[in-house]
Design brief:
mainly alpha; flat
Length: 109
């Protein structure tokens, strides 16, 4: 269970860092740039701890999949971006894929 909490922390840190990357305007704004560096460092550190326990494929599928969906949601809410139907379908497939791995794959147990 601790591994999944660390994985959630890694996802949140990555999402904050990626969102701040857009706000950093090419690293020309100091505070968002600092958040980018700290967020990615925290995310990768947490991932390194998770990988001591969970398989890399499962870990990466969850980290990347949830990151994509959450960053897209932040893009909608904070940056006013509007995904199209294929983007929503793709995210649904990502969520479904992570669910299939978690429910049916022996690697996740």
């Amino acid at each position: 269970m601790k591994s999944y909490i660390l994985l959630a922390l890694a996802v949140v840190a990555e999402v904050v860092a990626t969102s701040s990357l857009k706000a950093s305007a090419g690293f020309t704004r100091l505070i968002p740039s600092i958040i980018v560096v700290v967020g990615y460092a925290l995310s990768f550190y947490a991932l390194s701890l998770v990988l001591k326990v969970l398989p890399v494929g499962i870990t990466y599928a969850i980290w990347a999949g949830l990151g994509i969906v959450l960053v897209t949601l932040i893009g909608i809410v904070v940056f006013g971006e509007r995904p199209d139907l294929p983007a929503y379908l793709g995210m649904a497939l990502i969520i479904s894929g992570v669910g299939v791995i978690q429910i049916f794959s022996r690697l996740s147990h």
